[in-house]
Each structure stands twice: as structure tokens, then as C-alpha cells.
Design goal:
The complex is a heterodimer of chains A (about 250) and B (about 325). With about 250 residues, chain A is α/β, with parallel strands linked by helices. Helix content of chain A is about 30%, strand content about 25%. Chain A contains seven helices and ten strands. The longest helix of chain A is centred in the C-terminal third of the chain and has 18 residues. Chain B is flat. With about 325 residues, chain B is mostly helical. Chain B is built from twelve helices and no strands. In chain B, helix 1 packs antiparallel against helix 2, helix 2 packs antiparallel against helix 3 and helix 5 packs across helix 8. The two termini of chain B are about 40 Å apart. Chain B has two domains: about 110 residues; about 200 residues, MetI-like fold, CATH 1.10.3720.10. Helix content of chain B is about 80%, strand content about 0%. The chains are: A alpha/beta (about 250), B mainly alpha (about 325). Chains A and B meet through strand 6 and helix 2 of A and helix 9 and helix 10 of B.
Chain lengths: ~250, ~325
């Protein structure tokens, strides 16, 4: 099995601000992990360091015993917005990574397969602006997945979508996760989304930024959205986040 | 009923205007100050417009997809004919003006017809110069722009240079260029290239600099090398801006072409105009201006066609 991540004492400082303060985390191969926490808790920063987009000030991240020093095709990255290349068609967007790595000729069929998987058959020659938001995000996921990364990093990939498209895409992502037997790490603001999708929810806090608690979600899959047991997990997570419903210590109102 | 009559009137109005023009041409007495030509070229010209319009109208009876367009354009040609009628009446029938500076339409059109071989040679010379300069300026500008837009180091050293040298009007370089370059031709090429270089550099680099960083991050996570990112992300994303630069460059290359051809050149349309002026043949000056107008608008049309082809991915259509 591949796709095991080891994060060791990662510190990230932006000038004088400490975004991550000595963070340790182990992500098991093939698991689905969500990072949740208030804005500014460093969850996106952690994801970017795993993706190799940012460098840790100190500390190390290993993927299957190899130290991560930069972006690599072993890790796919899905961004908040679809960020499709506007000047390329759907097909060209999905093939971008393969072409950039000069392995397109051998993997042409993969592109077609992922177009099918993303439900974009018939839209191969369309430009991004001609697609709906959900289709754009699916195309973007297909683009990140077509190179068969062992880890997919998702930075609030569904944040910009409406509720229904969002639920549909959550299931699509879970399907892909199951089929490809890959590790997924997702940053989210949505507690229910985290519970619905994850094996583990990593709850982070800000100032100082650290991992408060790692909560295992021991629910059978496929999960139902309107499950009673969700409530317990939700309460636990919200309590860790200090949003459990006490009305004390309100520092600000907006 | 009334609407139908108006529509028919609209469609036959250009022919009425042509008939009136011909009547005025032959029946109203000339002022006798204009040089007489071997042929009534002006009459030929408006008849040609009429014939072409008639053909278009007849064809449009059978092809409905061009009908609206022909109907829409017909009043415009009526306007053209009326405008020419006014012009011809003023120049040939009245004595309100110095005839030297306002030659008759017969003379201007006649010159275009009778000197076509010589004019064509000069047009070719101009186009050759324009194209050589444009290709040099455009390609050097493109590469400087990409380097400036992509590399902070290049930008550090070159931005001040570009900012100081770029805005100097090209014509101010003429004396220097003529003495530095071995031949007038190479000096001219340099000057036109310079006129194109600056806007292309500026718009290319600003186009690249304004690309959202996330585009490059996506490319990096997909395994794209720096060169691949430049070729497949930076340049295509900056293409709308690059075309704007090419557009400004084209316009300023026309201005420079005229300036260099009128200064010490011995061929080309710009030279032809200044030569005709110096020998007081204003029909030649007008003929030259008409040719330049045609060349400029054809070049820009061509540029827009290429742009529309390259930028099909852009949302909507940009109007010019």
C-alpha cells in the first residue's frame, strides 16, 4: 500500500506570525482524513506543505518514507475554486498533467476514462466558461486524479458550490476514493461534511495553532446523511472547537 | 402598406442617388479649373458601386441569410454616393476653394487607376518594410515581455530601461537611427520595430504579471516544469493582453512607417505622398491617403481575425 503520510514537528512561520507550531500527524494509507478548524488555524497551510506548494520553516513531511520537497505527481491537489485553465478545453485540461510530464501518449485512455468518470462525456471540447460550477469542479478533480496520485489533497473543494451539487460531489469523491484505494486529506469548514466523509477528523485550533483532537469516525459506509449518530460526533467536534453552545466569553459579535 | 413602400424606397434610393449624380456630372456646368481626364472615372466608380449593390440585392432575394445584412447596409451606400456627389459638385462645379488642393474625384480615382503599377510597387515596398519591422519588433517585444513578466530579476534590471526608453516617440529616434545604421533601410526597420516593441513588451509583461498565482500552483501540482508553465500557462493566459499590445503596436507602426518614408526614403506610399505634395500634385496626395487607409484597415481586420481565432476560449465577444 502506498499513500502513507508522516508529518513530523512541522513549523511554518510567515514573518513573525506562526501559522503552524510543531505539528505531528500520521495519516494511514488509504484513509480519508478531514482537517477542520477555525479560519487561521493553519489547516490550509498544512495541506499546502504536504502538497509541496509551501515549504515548512522546520520539520519534515514524508510520503511513503520519501521526504516531500516540492510538488509531485504522487500528490494530487484540488483547489477551492476549480481553477480550470480557461484557454484549454475540458479534455485538454484533464490531459494537462500527463502532457506536462510527457507521458500523455501512453495514458491517452486514462483521459477518456476520467472524462467518463466525471460525467463530462459530450463536453470534451467545451471551454470551462461553458460548464456549470459542479461540472467545473468535477473536471478539476478529474485533472488532479488522472495521473493516479497516491494522495489527493482537497482544499475546501466544494466550498463554492450550492448545497445539492455539494452533496452530489461529496458522494462522487467518496466513490473515487473507494475505487482508487487512495489516501485523501480534505480541508473543510463544514462539520457535517467532515463526519460524512472521513475516517478521521483532525480538529485544529488557532493561536497557538495546534491539533486539539483527532476523532475517529467509526460509522459503517456507505453512510446516511440523516444519521442520529452524526449528532454525537458533531457535539464532540463542536465542543473541541469551543462552539458547543455555551454563551460565555463572547469576545466579539460579528 | 406604408412600411412596405418605405422599405422599397430604401432599397432603390442608392440608384436614384446615382442617377442624380450622373445628371449633375453631365448637365451642370463645370468650373473649368480641373484637369480633364481621359475617362469619367468618378462615374465609373459610382456605377460600379451600384452594380455591386444590385447584384447583392438580387442574390439576397434567393438567400435569406444575407437579406437582412444587405438591407441594413443599403442606406450606408446611399450615403456614400450622396457624399461623393457633394464632393464632386464642390470640386468641379463651384469656385469656392483653391482647386489645387481639392482635385476632382475623376482625377483622384483616375490616378489610382492609371498609375496602378507604380502605386502597387510602392505599396509592396511599404508593406515589406512594415512587415519586416513588425516581425522584429513583435517577436523581440514578445520575448522581452515574457522575460519581464516571468522573472523578477529580469524585471528588476529591465523595467526601468523599458519605462524610460519605451515611451520616447519613435520619430525622435529618426536622426540617431539614420546615422547609426549603415543603410536607410535597416534604420527604418529598426524604427518600426521599436514602435511595435514597446507596446508588445509592456502588454505581454503586464498580462503575465496579472495572472492569478493559483494557475501556476495548479500547473506545479500537475508536474509542469518552469518552461512548461511559461509556454502553457503564462503565455496563453496573457494572450488577450498580448493582442492588445499587438494592436497598439500595429497602430504606432503605421505612424512610424509614414514618418520614416516621408523622411529620406525613396520609395513607399509615405514617400509617394510627400513627393506628390512637393510637386504640387494633390490628386496623388489623396490617392496615397486612400491607399494608406485601405492598408491600415485591412491590416487591423486581419489582426482581429487572427485574434478571434486564437481567443475562442474567451467568454463572450470583445467589441472593437
Amino acid at each position: 500500500m502506498v499513500g502513507e503520510l508522516l508529518i513530523e514537528n512541522v513549523v511554518k512561520k510567515f514573518d513573525s506570525v506562526t501559522a503552524l507550531n510543531g505539528l505531528d500527524l500520521k495519516v494511514k494509507s488509504g484513509s480519508f482524513v478531514s482537517l477542520i478548524g477555525p479560519s487561521g488555524c493553519g489547516k490550509s497551510t498544512l495541506l499546502r506543505i504536504i502538497g509541496g506548494l509551501d515549504k515548512a520553516t522546520s520539520g519534515k513531511v514524508y510520503l511513503d518514507d520519501n521526504e516531500i520537497t516540492g510538488p509531485g505527481s504522487d500528490r494530487g491537489f484540488a483547489f477551492q475554486a476549480s481553477n480550470l485553465f480557461a484557454w484549454l478545453t475540458v479534455e485538454q485540461n484533464i490531459a494537462f498533467g500527463l502532457k506536462a510530464r510527457h507521458i500523455y501518449e501512453e495514458h491517452k485512455d486514462d483521459v477518456q476514462e476520467y472524462i467518463k468518470m466525471a460525467g463530462l462525456v459530450g463536453f470534451e471540447k467545451s471551454y470551462p466558461h461553458q460548464l456549470s460550477g459542479g461540472m467545473q469542479q468535477r473536471a478539476s478533480l478529474a485533472r488532479a486524479l488522472v495521473g493516479h496520485p497516491s494522495v489527493l489533497l482537497l482544499d475546501e473543494p466544494l466550498g463554492a458550490l450550492d448545497a445539492f451539487t455539494r452533496m452530489k460531489l461529496q458522494d462522487d469523491i467518496l466513490d473515487i476514493w473507494k475505487k482508487n484505494n487512495m489516501t485523501m486529506i480534505m480541508v473543510t469548514h463544514d462539520v457535517d461534511e467532515a463526519i460524512y466523509m472521513s475516517d478521521q477528523v483532525v480538529v485544529m485550533s488557532s493561536r497557538p495553532s495546534k491539533i486539539e483532537e483527532i476523532i475517529d469516525i467509526d460509522l459503517p459506509r456507505p453512510r446516511a446523511r440523516a444519521q442520529d449518530t452524526f449528532g454525537e460526533y458533531r457535539t464532540r467536534i463542536l465542543n473541541v472547537l469551543d462552539l458547543g453552545g455555551k454563551v460565555s466569553d463572547v469576545e466579539y459579535y460579528l | 402598406m406604408r412600411e412596405k413602400l418605405l422599405k422599397i424606397l430604401k432599397l432603390i434610393l442608392p440608384y436614384i442617388a446615382i442617377a442624380v449624380s450622373i445628371l449633375v456630372y453631365y448637365k451642370v456646368g463645370d468650373n473649368g479649373k480641373q484637369k480633364q481626364m481621359a475617362h469619367p472615372y468618378y462615374i465609373y466608380f459610382i456605377t460600379l458601386i451600384g452594380v455591386l449593390l444590385l447584384i447583392a440585392q438580387i442574390v439576397s432575394i434567393f438567400y435569406s441569410d444575407i437579406r437582412d445584412k444587405v438591407e441594413y447596409k443599403t442606406p450606408f451606400y446611399t450615403g456614400v454616393i450622396v457624399f461623393l456627389l457633394v464632393l464632386n459638385t464642390i470640386t468641379t462645379k463651384t469656385t469656392l476653394h483653391p482647386t489645387l488642393y481639392f482635385p476632382s474625384l475623376d482625377r483622384v480615382i483616375g490616378l489610382l487607376v492609371e498609375s496602378r503599377a507604380f502605386l502597387f510597387k510602392n505599396v509592396l515596398d511599404s508593406l515589406k518594410l512594415l512587415l519586416t519591422g513588425f516581425l522584429w519588433g513583435g517577436s523581440v517585444g514578445f520575448f522581452t515581455g515574457v522575460a519581464l513578466g516571468h522573472s523578477k530579476k529580469v524585471a528588476y534590471w529591465l523595467t526601468p530601461v523599458t519605462k524610460v526608453i519605451g515611451p520616447i516617440p519613435t520619430t525622435a529616434w529618426i536622426p540617431l537611427a539614420l546615422s547609426v545604421f549603415a543603410t536607410t533601410h535597416s534604420a527604418n526597420v529598426f524604427l518600426i520595430a521599436f514602435a511595435v516593441w514597446f507596446p508588445v513588451t509592456l502588454m505581454t509583461s503586464s498580462g503575465i504579471q496579472s495572472i492569478a498565482n493559483v494557475n501556476f500552483e495548479v500547473a506545479r501540482t500537475l508536474g509542469a516544469s518552469t518552461i512548461y508553465q511559461i509556454v502553457h500557462v503564462a503565455i496563453p493566459a496573457a494572450m488577450p493582453s498580448i493582442f492588445l499590445g499587438l494592436f497598439y503596436g500595429t497602430v504606432s507602426s503605421f505612424a512610424t512607417l509614414m514618418a520614416v518614408e516621408m523622411n529620406g526614403n525613396s520609395s513607399g506610399i509615405g514617400w509617394y505622398i510627400s513627393w506628390q505634395k512637393s510637386v504640387m500634385l494633390y490628386d496623388g496626395v489623396y490617392a496615397g491617403l486612400i491607399i494608406i487607409a485601405a492598408i491600415c484597415s485591412l491590416t487591423l481586420t486581419l489582426l482581429f481575425k487572427v485574434r478571434d481565432k486564437v481567443l475562442v476560449w474567451q467568454k463572450g465577444v470583445i467589441k472593437w
